[in-house]
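Now for one record.
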Amino acid sequence: MIIALTGPSGIGKGFIKEQLLRTYPFIEELAWFTTRPLRPNESGGNRINVPDFQFNQLVESGNLVLVQNLYGYRYGLRKHDLAPSPSVKLTELHIDNLIEALRINTTILVIGLITSDLSLLRERLSINRNTESQAEIEN
């Protein structure tokens, strides 16, 4: 079973994911490939950092899916990691990738996180997290 948390940046997907992984050690986190370097005070987690040329090779060979460009960096998951599995796996999915993920595996359990107050997200991104530019926050 794959559980996917989805919602806008700053909504708390990462916090909830970390709490679930800490509370339920049998849950596996899916590994995302990315060209983005680690943020200050960020651990690698279950990320695989690769240079642009290697990321492109993985995409061209069909090994990476859910490929997205966010804020100048690229992200993707290995296609075989999205296959149905008897183990419990957890990931965060950008809303734009949700439809593609469900085409690959229709049994993904999706948990959508929302807020009725967008000012809370702006505050969390600009004051608390302080890792995105003002232009990125407004998008």
Remarks:
- The radius of gyration is 15 Å.
